[in-house]
Input
Amino acid sequence: MLHYEKIGDPERSEEDGMAALRLGIVGAGFVAHFHVRALMQMRGFEVAGIVSPHRAGRLAEVVRQNGLGEGRVFSSLGEMAHQVDVIALFAPNYLRVEMVEALVDAVRQGAALKGVICEKPLARNLKEARRLVELIESVGLRNAYFENQIFMKPIQAQRLQLAPLQEQMGPLSLVRSAEEHGGPHEAWFWDPTRQGGGVLSDMGCHSIAAGWYCLTPVGKPAMFLQPVSVMADCALLKWGRPEWRERLLRDRGVDYARTPAEDFATGMVTFRNPETGQLVKAQFTNS
Output
């Protein structure tokens, strides 16, 4: 049984005479629990629904124990779409297109959804990502892509400290970002056919986003800098060795001898400032 300690006691939106935003969560695993923990610091919403073939009841219990809402478990995404305002997709990557198709169908059938949130990475590949955007835009849903690292306190604090210097010396021209950990927490995330790749997709999306964000001049929108070129080097190092491949097959049921994925990636993204023409670079390394 999980119980997270609340941080503070935020006022509920009902006290302000406003209806709480009803959030529906798809998925009940590692990421969903982290988001629920973060929601304890928020107000103006309730977790009104959960859809997941596994562990939905466990997440619903955490939601109710911490006063975050009813946490009603629905049998399908389509059913839940008619009972919530926003749907957050925290389920595996290989199900993204199927899930968005279901919620778009629900909207076309009358569900009054206001928006959809998608956990990183957006999709397994560019084709699927474009399909997701196309589907969501076809019914006019507001949408959000969840990338957490640009909001980390060290990054925010450093941007604030450097802001006066940028006013005097100009915007940053080079940012280096890196991240490393022991590997995914779920078996499907090790499988490149279901995840969409390896560490470049899983962790590289964080480092590239952080680099892009930090290079963006103060006061400019997030998409201000224009990417003009990308170079990268990927490799299968540790998990390509026989002893580690055997361990992965034994513990996770994933065979890297048949379907390998990179466990190391490094590269450089070059951006152009559309106002000055200045080129700036974001270097990333992940393993």
Notes: The domain at 13-146 is CATH 3.40.50.720 (Rossmann fold). Confidence is low (pLDDT under 50) at residues 1-15.
